[in-house]
Design a protein that fits this description.
This protein is mainly α. The protein contains 4 helices and 2 strands. A hairpin with a 2-residue loop joins strand 1 and strand 2. Helix 1 packs antiparallel against helix 2 and helix 2 runs antiparallel to helix 3. The longest helix is centred in the middle third of the chain and has 56 residues.
Length: 160
């Protein structure tokens, strides 16, 4: 939410201050320092009023949500009591009416919405290959090359 201090862009605030200072004696058609200051003050006042109303609306939304939750919990309890009453001593058609009632769930009973992942939203995954995975190809030589660098063997001097 905006506060009155950040209601005006800094460049607008600077322009209004210029027209209140060095350009105070200058007047253009429909534009002068006093008119700009009045409009800037109106923007700041409206921003403060909007912030106040937003806070009041948020508080009212919370109060309404709490009242709905309370009503729903009490309605579920009342329905449970009424079903017990209808099963015992109430008229037969009352039990049928009560069984037909389906109350909404409370917030804690509602299932969480499914979160879509990037893989599911772009395109479907390729079907999995069937059958057994292929074996890795074996080397064709009997002995595999030893890992690491191989240096040529130096010829040993022949002593006769």
């Amino acid at each position: 939410m905006s506060t009155p201090s950040d209601a005006l862009d800094p460049s607008l605030r600077e322009l209004v201050e210029l027209f209140a200072g060095p350009l105070a004696t200058v007047s253009f058609p429909g534009v002068d320092g006093r008119r700009l200051a009045t409009l800037a003050a109106q923007v700041e006042t409206d921003t403060a009023e909007l912030a106040r109303l937003d806070a009041a609306a948020a508080a009212l939304r919370q109060r309404l949500s709490d009242a709905r939750d309370d009503l729903l919990q009490r309605a579920q309890r009342a329905l449970a009591y009424a079903r017990v009453y209808a099963d015992g001593e109430g008229p037969a058609d009352l039990a049928a009416q009560l069984d037909a009632l389906v109350l909404p769930r409370t917030r804690s009973q509602r299932p969480a919405p499914a979160v879509a992942t990037a893989a599911t939203t772009t395109e479907p995954a390729a079907p999995r290959k069937r059958g057994r995975p292929r074996k890795e190809p074996q080397p064709t030589t009997l002995f595999a090359a030893a890992p690491g660098p191989t240096a040529p063997l130096a010829a040993a001097p022949v002593v006769s």
